[in-house]
Each structure stands twice: as C-alpha cells, then as structure tokens.
C-alpha cells in the first residue's frame, strides 16, 4: 500500500475521505421514523459500497485511476443512492413522510465527493 495522505493529491484525499464517510454512514440510521430506525447494514446499504472499491483500491495502491471506470462507479453510486432514498417515503396517517435517516444522507454526500474526486484525478506520470 503506497498511500500517504499528507503527500497525496486533492483527488486522492477526496476519494479516501469519501470512502471513510461511506463506511461510517453504514453504522448510522438509514431509515428513521422517530419510533423505529434501521442502520445501513440493516437496510443493505453495503451493496452500494461496492462502487467505492475500484477508486479506493487504485488510490491505496498508488496506481493510476481509469477516469471512465471511476466516473461510472461514482455516478452509479450517486444514482443508486438517490433511488434508495426515493424508496424511503411512506404514508403515515394520510401524510407522506420521508423516512430517510442521517446515514443515508451522509452516504449520498460521500458518493458525490467520490465522483468529484474521480473528476479531479490526474494521470500519474511514468518514468
């Protein structure tokens, strides 16, 4: 593992921090209706974490990131999170209530930051 946070480019730092935030979000409530809540693990949010594997693997190993593959991963993570977020609206006593918890919103932000980090990634110089 060749990753040194202090000497890394901004793009690598963003990808690393986004992945850390995404993992932390799994422990927070993804569904919260006040009287009941469920974490990201209970809501199977770890499935969306799959899209973080390629970018973080490339950053941690110090290898060049294929921008197209990284963007595909980031965009699918954002779209998947939005789709997941849209399923958290429920009807309670005739009123539509958004039951999404703080962990789901943190994961959405992490997915967006991952995509921005991939966009800022520059090709590595080879000697």
Question: How would you characterize the overall build of this protein?
Answer:
This protein has one domain (10-120). The two termini are 20 Å apart. The protein has helices at residues 10-25, 53-61, 67-86, 102-120, and strands spanning 29-32, 37-39, 89-92, 95-98. A two-stranded antiparallel sheet has the order 1-2. A two-stranded antiparallel sheet has the order 3-4. The radius of gyration is 16 Å and the shape is elongated. The longest helix has 20 residues, at 67-86. With 127 residues, the chain is mainly alpha-helical. The mean pLDDT is 89. Keywords: Membrane, Transmembrane, Transmembrane helix.
Compact summary:
Keywords: Membrane, Transmembrane, Transmembrane helix. The chain has a two-stranded antiparallel sheet. A two-stranded antiparallel sheet has the order 3-4. Strand 1 (29-32) and strand 2 (37-39) form a beta hairpin.
Fraction of residues in helix:
40-55%
Low-confidence stretches are none
End-to-end Cα distance, whole Å, is: 20 Å
Order of helices and strands: HEEHHEEH
| Main beta-sheet strand count, sense and barrel state | 2 strands, antiparallel
Task: Specify the oligomeric state.
Answer: single chain
Number of helices: 4
Tell how many strands the DSSP assignment holds: 4
Mean pLDDT value: 89
Shape: elongated
Question: How many structural domains in the coordinates?
Answer: 1
Q: Give the percentage of residues in beta strands.
A: 5-15%
Main sheet strand line-up: 1-2
Overall structural class, as computed from helix and strand content, comes to mainly alpha
